[in-house]
Structures are given as structure tokens and as C-alpha cells.
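Annex B. Sample input.
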Amino acid sequence: MICDSEAVYANRLAQWLLEKKEMNFQIHIMHDSHLAEKFSKEQGIHILIVDDGIEKEIRERLAPDHMIFLYRYSASEEKGKNVRQIFKYQSADSIFKEILDICMQDEDPSCFRPVKKGNRQIVAVYSPINRIGKTTFAWEMARVCAKRGKTLYFSTDAYTVLEVQPEEEGFSVSDLLYFAGQESCRIGIKVSAAAPNDGRMQYLNPPVSREDVCQAGGKEWYQIALRILDEGAYEYVIVEPEGICQELFWFLDKCGKVFAPFTADSDLKIKRFLRDLQRTGYANLGERICWIDMGKDWRREILETFERGGEDGET
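Annex B, continued. Sample output.
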């Protein structure tokens, strides 16, 4: 329930929350405190989002299971283990993160909407050639995909330099590995709530160290990417698997699409890479890799590739 002294704010917040595809909840907006109390007695309130314009006595009578208290000037004396305080005039993502955290703590599966398995894809950007702009290419691809559906980008390379200044305390690939190891954690929901945004796409900060990534092989990384798709209602997960030390070819082979940037003087390395694929039993992977010439208009090629293969490569 949203019980806010500003009607426009409450309506806009409710509309924004209803657009979150991964959640399965009803939102009630109450401007009349008497109606809110009546609703609370008859049906109960699981999560109450309320601002400091509503009197404390009324907030207490509503007796929600959890309260997200929105303050406008300074945090109040509102106490209790089920009370969370947030500055009101900031990104709605902050409120959404608190809601997700409450739902995950309660371990209530009814809060999360089953994801329809449609044209969802894990897309890999990998190349045997170094320092040719793989991250720039992958970042641009994620932006293109974000126009088509919910998209996450991350790199397993600890030395990746992102196309934006990463948030100092932002959710990282090391955090992803940690939460993936927690049996009760819905990592897709966790990522959806915690990952920073760049426009329409979300991204993870690089791993804290190379050793973090080497703990997991390609099969485990693939399962993590699948969980992100399923639980976080993503349609695209764009991965730079540079840091995967084991089962790299297995991972690439499972991805819906694999893009490999190259330059005009890369022939010898490409031949060695393809020979290595053939020698290890992944010749078919070599045949379906989409090679991208970074000396040409590769941005246009991204657009054309997804337009041609819009329904191909489902994961």
C-alpha cells in the first residue's frame, strides 16, 4: 500500500512499480487515512510505503508487516526492525530495492511473477585478439538490446575498463558469484535491484580480482546467466567471458549468439583459434561465430544482425 500526502507522487510511484515485470503484487493507493485503516483491518498490509506527511498515530494504526518510511527533510524517530527509512525525493529504484529485499527476506515465492520463456538470449562477446575494442563493442550491443528488452551487461575480466565511470560501491561480478552461492538467494532479482543503470541497460562492475572469477568454470557461469534471465525477467544477458579460465568453449557453445570482433591483421590468430576449436570438438561453434570487423561500421552491423536474427538463438 502507498499512503502518501502527495497524490501525484503516489500515483507516479505506483505506475512505475507496476511496470516491474519480475514482481507479482497488488498496489493500493490510499489518500484517506480512514479507508486505509479499514483496509488494514479487513485485508492486512504486507508493505506500507508512507511519507512523513502522514501522522505517526495513523502510521501505527495501519500496522503493516513492513514499513518503508519516506522522509522529506530528515530521518525520523520511526523505529523497529521492520521499518526502513529512505529519503523521499530520489530515484524510485531505491524504493524498489527495499521492496525486493523485503520479499527475498520473507522467502515468499508468490511475490515473484513466473517469467514467460520467450526469445531470451545469453550473448557472448569474445575474441582471441586483444585490445581491439571488445568492451566498447559489447557495451554498444547491450544498449541496442536494451531498446528491445530488459538487458544486463557484465564482463568476467577483472581488468575491464567500462564505458562509464563505475559506481564505487556498485554491485560487481564478485558480488554476483557470492550471492549465486547462496541457495536461498534469487540472484536474478538481486541483480535487477542492485545493478547500476546506463540509460535503459543495467551493468555490473568488473570482478574485484581475477581469482574470484577463476573459482567458477564455464558451466557454472552459464547456470548463473540462466538464473539471471529466469529470475530477473531479463531478455538479454551480454557477457564478456574473457576471465573464464575453464570450460570457456563449452560456455561459448551454449550461448545464443557469439560475436567476435577482429581487425584486418588478425588472420593468423583467427586461424589458430579456429584450429583450437576443431581440435577440442567445437568446430560447429567456429562456424556460427559472428565475426565483426572493427575497421568497418560495426555499429550498423550490430543493428543489422539483430534485425536479421530477431527470433533466432533462444537460450
